[in-house]
Amino acid sequence: MTSSWTPDELDHAGPEHLDPEFVAGFDRKQGFPDPTPEIDALRAHGVGEDATVVDLGAGTGRFALAAAGVFARVVAVDVSAAMIRAIGERAAAEGVTGLETVRGGFLSYEHTGPPADAVHCRHALHQLPDFWKTLALRRIAAVLRPGGVLRLTDLIYDFQPDEAEGIFAAWLAGASTDPARGYTADDYAEHIRTEHSTYRWLLEPMLTASGFEIVETTFRGRLYGAYTCVRR
Ligand SMILES: C[S@@+](CC[C@H](N)C(=O)[O-])C[C@H]1O[C@@H](n2cnc3c(N)ncnc32)[C@H](O)[C@@H]1O
Predict the structure, then answer these.
(1) Residue 121: count of CB within 10 angstroms of its CB
(2) Which of 9, 42, 62, 89 has the maximum number of C-beta atoms within 10 A of its C-beta?
(3) SS3 171
(4) For residue 116, what are the contacts with CB-CB under 8 A and spacing of at least 6?
(5) Is the CB of 198 under 6 A from ligand 1?
(6) Is the confidence at residue 2, as pLDDT, over 90?
(7) Backbone phi, then psi, for 110, in 5-degree steps?
(8) Considering the entire predicted model, what is its pTM?
(9) Residue 62: CB within 6 Å of ligand 1?
């Protein structure tokens, strides 16, 4: 997508994600999330070992590196050069071969080869404002074959506007006090102020309008949502 009104995705990427020092400590900060449930969710919805899987907003590659040992073709896509470099370094250190890395964004990634069987996207889509999120979802649908699976997890607001104050207060109260080992109240406040988490009741119609059927949804704490969707 390139036109005079297309944003530079780096402006929305979160400056910390472009900073090699932050990237070096990113997995520890986010508590080394286990990619196994994500891989299991794809398998449970028919994504087999011969599948092509694209991980959009791949970060340091925790999902993509694990997925590379399970699925035939895995492409890790991220707009941040520092993140892409980190994936390459980890792949080399761990002896992971065959993982493809592409520096690109939701609005700029050009898929090559046969359509993907699955797209994985964790904690990244909220970087885009809603108008752009819908175009990103449309582009994800175009990457997938009909019947392909989108596994989307993100910070998604599962409440009504007048509940926001109470829910955010509880969220911030339960935050980490160590910025190296978790997200602090300041981090959460910055997320609310500057990033683009969407209400659940807006995101779901966006998914439908973008060509997806939602087949499974789980929420944690009315803030973290996980969707498995099938491309119609
Ligand atoms: C919070 S991190 C999550 C990384 C990874 N998915 C994970 O769960 O560990 C968000 C990632 O999205 C990437 N990102 C931000 N905007 C993007 C865009 N427009 N297109 C692709 N990736 C983007 C950032 O560079 C960063 O690596």
Answers:
(1) 23
(2) 42
(3) helix
(4) 51, 52, 53, 54, 75, 143, 144, 145, 148
(5) no
(6) no
(7) -110, 110
(8) 0.96
(9) yes
Does 57 sit in the ligand 1 pocket, CB within 6 Å? yes
**For 171-188, how does the pLDDT look when each residue is reduced to its tens digit (9 = 90+)?**
999 999 999 999 999 999
- The mean predicted confidence, pLDDT, of the chain is 97
Q: Select the more confidently predicted residue: 192 or 97.
A: 192
Ligand 1 center from residue 24 Cα (angstroms): 14
Taking the C-alpha atoms of residue 148 and residue 132, their distance in angstroms, rounded to an integer, is 22
Phi, psi of 123 (to 5 degrees): 55, 40
Ligand 1 pocket test, candidate residues 78, 143, 156, most atoms within 8 A of CB? 78
Q: Where are the domains of the chain?
A: 9-157+196-231
CA dist 118 and 151 (Å) reads 8
pLDDT tens by residue, 200-210: 999 999 999 99
Length of the chain (residues):
232
The pLDDT value recorded for residue 80 is: 98
Q: Give the number of the atom of ligand 1 that is nearest the alpha carbon of residue 128.
A: 19
The architecture that CATH gives domain 9-157+196-231 is 3-Layer(aba) Sandwich (3.40)
